[in-house]
Amino acid sequence: MIVESSKRLWIFIGIYIALIYISLPVVRYFLNFLYSSIGKDALDILLGVISAAGILSFFYYERIWNLEWKRITAFVFLLIFFTVTMQLIKVPEEKVHILEYGFLGILVYKGYKFSNRPLLRSVIFVGAIGIGDEFIQWLLPNRVGEIKDVGLNLLGGIFGVLASTINDKKA
Questions:
Q1: Measuring CA to CA, how many Å separate 105 from each of 41, 52, 111?
Q2: Are 85 and 98 in contact (CB under 8 A)?
Q3: Is residue 166 within 8 Å of residue 109, measured between CB atoms?
Q4: Per-residue pLDDT tens over the stretch 69-88
Q5: Phi, psi of 155 (to 5 degrees)
Q6: What is the pLDDT of residues 36-61, one digit of tens each?
Q7: CB of 101 within 8 A of CB of 72?
Q8: Which value, in Å, is the radius of gyration of the alpha carbons in the chain?
């Protein structure tokens, strides 16, 4: 049963990564459309709403409220750090890096949960995918791959991995 669900999870992770990579050539056009139709401020608010919905979903599905107080405290500090980070980032596209790789970090940690050193493996995996993302952008004529974005990808992944680690009873 665990092997089958793990296999399905890794298939889902592969599909999610493929969607990230496949969307790279068109996401700039989509963002330009959003900028022109709703504006930067509304897009910023939309990303805040998506962040809040993701956090509430994580709370619900992971049953955070069933944890002992030390883990809840750690999660609250992580949530504060996440919120401050998102407020300090002024460019909406950079916030998207945090969100998409945060979700990837949660998924990958779940995939490595029963292996040796799941935290380290997860961070390395997410970092490698983030490097691949920026390398592909560097090759595309309408995109720019940047080292700063690799860092944002990694930071988002670390947020997701740490949230999952805090919730992991065996950690």
A1: 27, 17, 10
A2: yes
A3: no
A4: 777 788 888 888 898 898 89
A5: -60, -45
A6: 999 888 888 888 899 888 888 887 77
A7: no
A8: 16
Tokens found for residue 130 = 């983030």
The pTM score is: 0.88
Give percent helix, percent strand, percent coil of the chain, each to the nearest 5.
Answer: 85, 0, 15
Which residue ranges make up each domain of the chain?
2-167
Which residue's structure tokens are 């670390």? 158
User: Distance (Å, rounded) from C-alpha 137 to C-alpha 98?
Assistant: 17
> What tokens does 143 get?
């995109």
Return the number of other C-beta atoms located less than 10 Å from residue 145's C-beta.
Answer: 17
Dump pLDDT digits (tens) for 105-141: 999 999 998 889 999 999 999 999 999 999 999 999 8
